Amino acid sequence: MLQQVEGSKAVARAVAACRPQVVCAYPISPQTHIVEEISRMVKAGELPGCEYVNVESEFAAMSGVIGSCAVGARSYTATASQGLLFMVEALYNVSGMGLPIVMTVANRAIGAPINIWNDHGDTMSQRDSGWLQLYAADNQEAADLHVQAFRIAEELSVPVMVCMDGFVLTHATEAVDVPDVGSVDAFLPPFVPRQVLDPDAPVSIGAMVGPEAFTEVRYLAHRRQLDALTVIPRVANEFAQHFGRTSGGLLHPYRTEGADLVVVALGSVLGTLQDVVDAQRSQGVAVGAVGLTSFRPFPYDAVRTALAGAHRVVVLERALAVGVGGIVAADVRTALVGTGVEQVTVVAGLGGRPITTASLGAMIGDAVAGRLPELTFLDLDHAVVDRELGRI
Amino acid sequence: MATTSLGMPVKFYQVGSFAVGNRLVDPALRSVQSGQERANALTSGHRACQGCGEALGARYVLDAAMRASQGRMVTVNATGCLEVFSTPYPETSWRVAWLHSLFGNAPAVATGVAAGLRALGRDDVTVVAQGGDGGTVDIGFGALSGMFERNDDVLYVCYDNGGYMNTGIQRSGATPPAARTMTTQAVGAEPGNVFGQGKDVPRIAMAHDVPYVATATVADLRDLEAKVTHAMSLRGSRYLHVLVPCPLGWGTASSDTVKVARLATESGFFPVFEAEHGVVTAVRHIRHRVPVEEYLRLQGRYAHLFRPERRDDVIARLQAIADRNIERYGLAGPVAALEVGPVGRAGALIEEGAAPGARVREV
Amino acid sequence: MDKPFAITLDVGSSLANHTGAWRVERPVYVELEPPCAHACPAGENPQRWLYAAEEGAYEQAWRRLVEANPFPAVMGRVCYHPCQTACNRGFLDEAVGINAVERFLGDLAIERGWALPVPEVTSGRRVLVVGAGPTGLSAAYHLRRLGHDVTVRDAQTAPGGMMRYGIPAYRLPRTVLDAEIDRLVATGVHLELGARVGDVLDAEREGFDAALLAVGAQLGKRAYVPAGEAARVLDAVTMLHDVAEGEAPHLGRRVVVYGGGNTAVDAARTAKRLGATDSVIVYRRTRDRMPAHDSEVAEAIEEGVRVTWLSTIRHASAGRVLIERMVLDETGFPQPTGELEELEADSLVLALGQETDLSLVEGVPGVSVVDGVIEVDDDLMTGRPGLFAGGDVVPAERTVTVGIGHGTRAARAIHAWLGRADVRPGVAPDADTAADVGTASDVGAAPDDGVGSGGDEGAEPGQLGAHPLTGAQVPGADAAGNPPVATFDQLNPWYFADAPHAVRPRLEHARRTSGFEEVVQGLDVTTAQYEARRCMSCGSCFECDNCYGVCPDNAVTKLGPGARFRFDYDYCKGCGLCVQECPSGSILMVPEVP
Ligand SMILES: Cc1cc2nc3c(=O)[nH]c(=O)nc-3n(C[C@H](O)[C@H](O)[C@H](O)COP(=O)(O)OP(=O)(O)OC[C@H]3O[C@@H](n4cnc5c(N)ncnc54)[C@H](O)[C@@H]3O)c2cc1C
Ligand SMILES: Cc1ncc(C[n+]2csc(CCOP(=O)(O)OP(=O)(O)O)c2C)c(N)n1
Ligand code: SF4
Ligand code: SF4
Ligand code: SF4
Ligand SMILES: [Mg+2]
After folding, report:
1. Each residue's pLDDT tens digit in chain C (594 positions)?
2. In total, how many domains does chain B have?
3. C312: domain range?
């Protein structure tokens, strides 16, 4: 049922429809509205059979769901930014043990300087943590991705992060068709854990593994992520059949046919980007866009296929690998090896700076003209940085 | 208690409640460890050092918990010796459902386990979490406090060997003053660990008003088992702090593990007590009080207090700690009867020993 | 469950890891000799029967006891209990009251009428025992158990020897003595009373295959004390004998007893009971050097007996004795001071020791008498083959306990002797046939008591010998595998609950000096059990489960009640905790044999 709803609430309700059994969370903007809503639902009895634990830190939040997931309870948490970093040790532990936990990250910049606004610096820092990362383009997709995330996670025994832009999505109210329990029940089977902490069938979970087997353990984790490359689109297809709309999958090409230039981006900027593409196309510029939903695993083949026809590719990044530049760009480059496609990186929207239609239009203009350098910081205030650099 | 015509107590069990077993005692009152059917939660083949107090303590605790829960129990373990020596791939020494996650998160994982079990409607399964002193009083302390504050339904057991042993004997917040570790070496003007303010986690636990807090050692099995059993009968957060000597880290003979734990309590250096809802309800009285020096002498980590010259000043400061414990908990109280259970727990008493003043010589 | 590789493991799989390979020393269970058993001249192993008594299995305890000693009720009263002197519990608080429990068991057996087994005569051999004192009766009992036909001859009209005619009734009621002797005789001993044996060779001629001389020391020593004619001087043995026969001698109101042994004390206390207002013991040295047992001296003093220490008697006359004060020189020997004193005395009783009447062996070839006693070998055999001797007639401590032990040993030796093919009394067996000597393993072995020498030669500390019962390798065992005695420092006394010695009630004063009622009362059921439970089981596993409990490696297998424990050397790392925490010292650490 379509409802005018804040993104956070839409996600909270979608998660609730998945019948989570344990939610452990610690508040941090801009994730707060999600967990507030879930905690309310639990307390109000709208989520029977769910335990909501107010833990004392994100480390405890992730640790808590480690415990609950290990006993076979469907487990969920949400965080952002500093909170994500505070749970890093546990993140790796979750993926290492193959616990199918689903977590929302309301993407937010990482301090210092402390900044509560959106960018992808937090989740990008965890790209090698062994979690799947799915980026939502809008609130509908954010809600839908959670339903899919539980399916994927539990099928593969891997944890999944659903990344949605903080404030831009979490705090935006728009019409969302929030998946309801009945439909989700038909789509998402009950959680059957691969391993479970159970006195009736005791095992030791979390052994110490030495050089003799560590590589194999890692290789198997790698293979499971690769399996996700087929599971993710399959689940997206099934979702489409069940719910009658398209969400998720590995990536979304947008008007890439015949495009000379393709802009690759993740998250909420895709909406703006599509508007700009439409505008440019109407002016005859052969530009398209590729929205990357699955950043982990990285769909190399799908990316190469989507970009095969382009001459130039701009990777629009909401994060920065300091001293290097793009993060997503590195993977795209790998995907394009041998294709001869030119590629540049544009870092934009850090710490919540709006990515405007105008700026994107100008960027495309420059790109088409071949004027974009290898790395560009969109809307950089040159006066400020020149002054500062001059001082050094 | 029935007495003989001479006023002697009739029931006297030879080894009373001190030994592991006692063939003279009512089978219902026998220790878990004495039973052939004990769970052996931690079984043979583990890689703990010879005479490891932690390995011993863990089996004592978990076997008692297994009996108390009739096997309906799962465990969560922090990183540390206990985890490393028990579960190196491809072998595990545990015979109970066991989960290891990280060094500093065992209380939180246990919280999640408890929440998960509740959500699954498995109220019959209880949760025991365990970790070393490092995992408990230092890195896991925040999580522990959170667990206490929420009163999560977990029995948390800290095996205190006074240091980070697994990483090669470094100082922890539970390392006693003056003790030598690899990061508080026996060099300089004040060799060994500093005399800080101490980090008395049992008392900090009590400050959370949790239902049950107790201390124990591997030298007093019956007391330990009674505490585990009692703790398992309660709900909410329960904390058990068990002193487990570490031959490697303490520089003690592997055969002295129990003895040195006994001296820790008999000197008053390690007070054994229990508290409910923040109030001390019982203490284990000292049986034969010894100066703290007797405890220190057995341990290489205090060798610098005796060689090359005696550090009477430092020994006196350590004695003062013991004296303060004795006073604070009233450890010097009378040992009128030796009990199987913690003092004051009705129904668990073994009557024995002499009535005060019954020491009569044949004339 | 589709468990993830390596991260999740099957429970208990570490059993594949045999940590026993780490070990450089291994614990072994041992069975050491308890000090009480080692010290008991009667060859009892008190620990064994206390173990049963601890559980309240009194009949079983009694049966174990009488395997060695058929007189628990007597011994529980008159034994000087060297077992208790040796008891390791003395280092902790006070020795276990072994003797009191023994008496309790003995009395209970009489009360319940428990009988000794009556064995068939299976050997076809006849043995003569001369003397129905403790030595002779003990020998008769054990010979019966070994299936021999035994005749005991005694000159007196009642059996018991000094148990009847020496030890006063207030210490050993005759009903008790009679009950135990009757029970023993009922095993099929031919008892011939009023039958003085004048010459042992006559007995051989009667067709006995072997004989034991157990005639004791019946004659009071009459040291020379200058005495006026009117002085009334008698010897303690005679006096006590007469009292025992019901013929109370006339002693008068003031009695002086000369001597420092138990006989002196018995005489003085008996005098009190016969109506003496003054009963004074005169003794040459100080109290701490007095051979009499402290408890008896104390009881005597309680009853009003006075002791004049450091004094000798110079002269006795009618109504008085003259004594001289002594001082101890640096060697502890009393030296006269010349200081004289007079004591009023209606009679003087000499209690200066006993001598033995050896007329029955006079002229018997091979029998040699030195210092008034018969010489014997390790097997208590005299120089005449087939003729044995024990008790007060051989050089040893003179106590009932030693006598009983000798009886046991002599029975065993006689049994072995009779086992030889060609035995004939008076004839040494052929060397070739002497090889296969049957030993009576079911007879309690009496340890070394000063006669002959123990088999300790060849034992070196740390030497390994296998214990005959357990097969355990016992460091320090002798060549025969006899284990060393368990010492206090081998125990872990922490584990024994604090429990002071249970006292035996005593008869109150007034009744003590007015008659011959028994002074020391027995323990009741609960107190006896309490006392039994004070036993620390030195050197013998009593299944406290400590080793099973304290092993961090779970390397001790509990085999179940009565079956004790086994080490699982696949996993034992050799930490030694079990050894350290064994209360009874029943585990030793031995080097791992490479
Ligand atoms: C007053 C007194 C108190 C004592 N108190 C204790 C005590 O409390 N505890 C303790 O342990 N010991 C005590 N003793 C010592 C103890 O009684 C003797 O050591 C013990 O009785 C010796 O036993 P036996 O069998 O060798 O000799 P005896 O007990 O002397 O028995 C020898 C028997 O042989 C008989 N006999 C002798 N000659 C002949 C013969 N030719 N033919 C046939 N029969 C013969 C005698 O009649 C006698 O019955 C005491 C001794 C005395 C005198
Ligand atoms: C986050 C983190 N920091 C440090 C370590 C290294 N480490 C592992 S065990 C340990 C010490 C364990 O000490 P304690 O908890 O007292 O247990 P013990 O080994 O003494 O039994 C340390 C420092 C770690 N595993 N994780
Ligand atoms: S270092 Fe200490 S705690 Fe660790 S296994 Fe060895 S003895 Fe046990
Ligand atoms: S520790 Fe106890 S059970 Fe083990 S051998 Fe010693 S006495 Fe026997
Ligand atoms: S306690 Fe266990 S490991 Fe140690 S020596 Fe004894 S049996 Fe061996
Ligand atoms: Mg530690």
Report:
1. 578 999 999 999 999 999 999 999 999 999 999 999 999 999 999 999 999 999 999 999 999 999 999 999 999 999 999 999 999 999 999 999 999 999 999 999 999 999 999 999 888 899 999 999 999 999 999 999 999 999 999 999 999 999 999 999 999 999 999 999 999 999 999 999 999 999 888 877 898 999 999 999 988 887 778 888 778 899 999 999 999 998 888 899 999 999 999 999 999 999 999 999 999 999 999 988 889 988 889 999 999 999 999 999 999 988 899 999 999 998 888 999 999 999 999 999 999 999 999 899 988 999 999 999 999 999 999 999 999 999 999 999 999 999 999 999 999 999 999 987 566 666 665 544 433 333 333 343 333 333 333 333 333 333 344 444 444 556 677 777 778 999 999 999 999 988 777 777 776 766 677 778 888 888 888 888 889 999 999 999 999 999 999 999 999 999 999 999 999 999 999 999 999 999 999 999 999 876
2. 1
3. 251-348
Cβ(C205) – ligand 1 distance below 6 Å: no
Between strands A75-79 and A22-25, the pairing is parallel
Question: Residue A108 to residues A28, A123, C190: CA-CA distances in angstroms?
Answer: 10, 9, 111
B104 CA from centroid of ligand 6 (Å): 13
**For testing contact with chain C, the best of B1, B5, B12, B225 (most C CBs within 10 A):** B12
Last residue of a domain, one of C377, C412, C429: C429
Mutate to test the pocket of ligand 5, among C575, C580, C588, C592 (most ligand atoms within 8 A of CB): C575
Q: What is the CATH number of the domain that holds C305?
A: 3.50.50.60
Tell me the sheet residues that pair with C341: C323
Domain count, chain C: 2
CB contact residues (below 8 A), chain C span 70-99, against chain B: 93-94, 97
Assigned domain for B1 exists: no
Contacts A–B by Cβ distance under 8 A: 170
Select the residue from A21, A42, A204 to test the B interface by mutation, using most B Cβ atoms within 10 A: A204
Query: C576: Cβ below 6 Å to ligand 5?
Result: yes
How far apart are alpha carbons B227 and B65 in whole angstroms? 10
Q: Which residues from B are below 8 Å from C295, CB to CB? A: 362-363
Residues in chain B: 363
Is residue B197 a part of any domain in this protein? Answer: yes
CATH number at residue B86: 3.40.50.970
What's the pTM?
A: 0.90
d(CA C552, nearest CA chain A) in Å: 20
- SS3 label, residue A378: coil
**Cα separation of B70 and B53, whole Å?**
25
**In degrees, to the nearest 5, what angle opens at C-alpha C447 toward C-alphas C445 and C452?**
115
Beta-sheet pairing, C565-567 with C556-558: antiparallel
Domain C-terminal end among C348, C367, C385? C348
Is C289 domain-assigned?
A: yes
Q: Which of C553, C571, C17 is nearest to B51 (CA)?
A: C553
Inter-chain residue contact B89 with A54, CB threshold 8 Å: no
d(CA C260, CA C251): 19
Rounded to a whole number, what is the distance in Å from the CA of C114 to chain A's nearest CA?
56
Distance B172 CA to ligand 6 centre (A): 7
Q: Inter-chain contact C7–A157, Cβ cutoff 8 Å?
A: no
Kindly list the residues from chain A whose CB atom is less than 8 angstroms away from the CB atom of residue B39: none
Q: CA B352 → CA B191, C174, C496, C532, distances in Å?
A: 45, 37, 11, 14
Residues in chain B within 8 Å Cβ distance of C498: 335, 338, 353-354
